[in-house]
Amino acid sequence: MPSSLIERPVDGPSATPPAVTTTRRADRNFAGLARGSGIAVLIIMAAIGAFLLWKALPALQANTAPFLTTSQWFPDDPAPRFGIAALAFGTLLSSLIALAVAVPIGVGVALYTAHYASRRIAPVLGYIVDLLAAVPSIIFGLWGLQVLMPNSKGLWRWLDQHLGFVPLLRNDLDSYTRSVALAGTVLAIMVLPTVSAISREVFMQVPKGHLEAALALGATRWEAMRTAVFPFSRPGVVSAAMLGLGRALGETIAVALILSATFAINWQLTEPGGNTFAANIALKWNEAGSVGLGALIASGLVLYIITFAVNMAARVVVERRREFSGAN
Amino acid sequence: MATLTPTGSQVHDLLAQRRLPWWNTAAVAAISVAIAGLFALTTPISGTAGTAVTALLTFMVVQTAVSTAVEGRRYAVDRLATTLLVGALVAALIPLVSILLTVLLRGLHALDPSFLTSTMRNVSPRKPGGGIVHALIGTIEQVAIAAAIGIPLGILAAIYLVEFGNRSRLARTVSFFVDVMTGIPSIVAGLFVYTALVLTVGLERSGFVGGVALSILMIPVVVRSTEEMLRLVPRDLREASYALSVPKYLTVLRVVLPAASTGIITGSMLAVARVTGETAPLLLTTFLTQSINANPFSGPQASLPTFVWDQIGSGTTASVDRAWAGALTLIVLVMILNIGARGIARLSRVK
Amino acid sequence: MRITTPTRALGIALALGLSLALSACGGSSGTTAKSDINCTTGAIKASGSTAQKNAMADWINAYQSACPDATIDYQAIGSSAGITDFKNNQTAFAGSDSALKPEDAPGADARCKTGKAINIPMVGGAITLAFNVSGVDSLTLTPAVIAGIFNGSITKWDDTKIKALNSGVSLPSASISAFHRSDGSGTTDNFTKYLAATAPAQWTYGNAKEWKAPGGLGAKGNDGVAAAIKSTDNAIGYIELSFAQDAALKVASVDNGAGAVEPTSQNAAAAITKATRAGTGNDLKLNLDYTIKEANTYPIVLVTYEITCQKGLPSKDLALTKSFLTYTASDAAQNGLTDSGYVPITGDLLTDVRSAVASLA
To answer: What is the ipTM of this complex?
Structure first.
């Protein structure tokens, strides 16, 4: 490794002593600077948790209701009452809807781009997906509000009328806007490029030999995918889905624009209402008093912990599966 | 898989396989559309979306049936899978095309030359007019601050991981948390910087505080792209340099970094593009204004994303028009950064 | 929509841009003196009520156009946040939908150092019940029915209680989506005060800036509620008249016991002039009578105040604050309110407002 190589010129007979020390010092300084930058990443990650906890504590202590199970938000009352039950519910539900829609489609697009599209079209498709990953979330929100919301009313009504026996799809309010289902759909479109881009990378890394061997043995294209591509890329796809989940959980602006913020746990997904951690912070930020600010910071801490766990899990899954598939 | 071990008869199949003619797909598609049209006329399942879904389902059923009959199950499954993949592609492209087209059309509708040269000062939320100069100035300054912090830090951290880390425990920990950091919700970055700089240090909400929040989001993107590029630099290059008695830091600065420079620039531009459109952290860390404030360290400062947010919030016809025009400007800016980044990457490849 | 022709609007925009450019170059030669504006220079910040956002925007535009060397930034961030800003010395005055509460008064007085903080009523408003029900153009409601809709006991548009008040209107058998403010707001405070005063049997949640009743749907800000009603079928919500007009929403008449009254500026002004004084001296805190039963008097009104220091504003802020508020209390500024869906202050109250502004020192 380089670290042993680097000592060689220094120890070599041709090196003159003064040059050696300055070189050594410069080397050490540079290494220290780089190392410090690496450590800075760790410090930032720790500081986020520490600062949020520190500034959330006074509000949490002033809270007169259980923080985890309350679905009300009156932090600036004389007797503050606030809790995250409704926020956690809306956040998880909208993100799960997003994943349920985005993962099959995103993985499909990735597979098509990587192994089905012609050599001329594939880079174009990849390019389009990459560019769309760059569309700012406020634009997704604006589009969701002004284009998708009016145009999707019919779909939600159809689901209510024909599949209303499924409690999730029943709508007793007769209005089909600003719902968790709509927010979840917009989130799906937002995380689709993430899921698709990462899956595509994974699919492209499949050893060419495996694929060609499968095809040469007479496998259909789909059989080649199943035998040569999927086993190799499963951990990568799982991690793509989890990274998509991470993005959906923390998405703020699009959700804040679309949902009709309420503090209720409502399983009827196509009815207006619902709220998420991130959207609630953005919407209540400017009006919050001192306890209100602390309460929002506390909810942000919970969001941080959740996304932290999801991203960590994504990483761990990749590592473990990698070892597993390596043994194959 | 058993199917990969062809038996005698399967080998025969492979060589003299009965396949559907090339026009089959078009024919089945035409039949499906016709059936869906019939459905639209005779049943409540109508409308563009409903007809499209019926047509797709019919296509899958008919083609699977035909293919099973003529080619056998394996090829039918193959065709079904292809149909589903194309379906996924179409399903993905519809909203994406709709978004880009709407932004373009509605944005152009509201965009006039004065939009790019005036501010919102003295413009009533209910009347047309006004512009985004103040927001452009804010966005450029805030993103520049973010880049000035995030890019050097990110590149140095990547150099540590590739050149000095040696897969040590610290390097693996850093690498792990860079991945986790990629997933920090942008609003949490805003909360963190607010608690640290505003509540603890005592700074006022300003463009600078917003820029710091954006830099948190840039760092992991820069680290990852730089790391990738550094790992692509052949080891021979480093070893040749060491063999010439060049010390390590000079090897990194003069040999490795230049070799990876275009990749690093591309990665950094993509990171800049990513934060240019961020709204949430700026909502927490800056104060909106309708006038120009060129000083990012003091007073309220507008930015493009928060401008769009504000105009959507006002909800009048005029302000929503302005929101679309602002969205178009924002998307053009982000796309220029993106396409520019990829252009640089391509140019260098030609060399 | 009240928008003038696009070309004219463009012309105005260009003119404003030009005047901005001139002021940016430091040239005050372009000043057009208006008789009722006594220009001064400098910059002040103010923040608070979203209810008076549109009035403030118009006034600031007029003032800054006449006085290019003056900058007034009004951030519509909600009354409570505005009062917090004012107490923390961040702003020269706060816009608020209700007068300073006793618990806020000491902090506000402390900020004024040598003087006291006073409430100056400046903009009146009517809180309308805006609705979006296809096929329904006019609607009459009573306090009890309004309370029933917002407490969740009346859930369908064809409920017999609504039908009884609206013979001849074809009400659909659809569920009501009732929108409230999801942020703390003086509009909510005044609306719930009204319900608590006029329908105590149905409305048991008292009054507060936060929405306390269970159920219903939330949206942020007057503009947010207006947009939500507009985009939601079978919706109703309480918003300021000016926002209902902007969003071109239909509004319900309210039967105050003396017949149905439309929410117009005139009808609301009638209710405000009948308010009694609750403050002393130049503190013009008002008590509104929500149970008023008179023809052509729209009872759900609110008065928004500018809260500032009678004495003790920093000298750099005083001149511009006084000059600006003098303008907002002028006939020109007050008459302009009606056009934008607000309710002007009139009669003796307006005279007192002017002397209160004149007393700022």
So the answer is: 0.89
